[in-house]
Design goal:
single chain, mainly alpha
């Protein structure tokens, strides 16, 4: 569906922002700060996109017949969950994984 593909594209946007921010600020900045700056940079766009899509889905849910409601309710839940995870979970998880990987590399370099 179009909504599902839009959510997949949005997932990659936060990682694109992280990559751009990391190139711009360099390696000396902590990963957590890079993620915070990247989320801040893409948050307004994400909110606008999500709200625009949600308004349409809510209108379909409110004005539609029972079969349309059964179809749009999971889409609404998916939009909310996808927006939350793509912006507020993916970045911190990436930062945590990168911090662990960098710590392992430092340990290997010492050994």
């Amino acid at each position: 569906s179009l909504v599902g593909s839009e959510m997949c594209i949005r997932d990659s946007i936060i990682f694109d922002r992280i990559r751009e921010t990391k190139k711009r600020v360099g390696m000396s900045v902590p990963n957590k700060e890079i993620v915070e700056n990247s989320v801040r940079a893409s948050l307004s766009r994400t909110i606008n996109t999500t709200l625009t899509t949600l308004f349409t889905l809510v209108a379909l849910y409110v004005l539609g017949v029972a079969s349309i409601r059964e179809f749009t309710f999971p889409l609404i839940v998916g939009m909310l969950a996808g927006s939350y995870s793509s912006n507020l979970l993916n970045g911190p998880v990436w930062a945590s994984l990168m911090d662990k990987a960098e710590a392992r590399e430092k340990q290997k370099a010492k050994a």
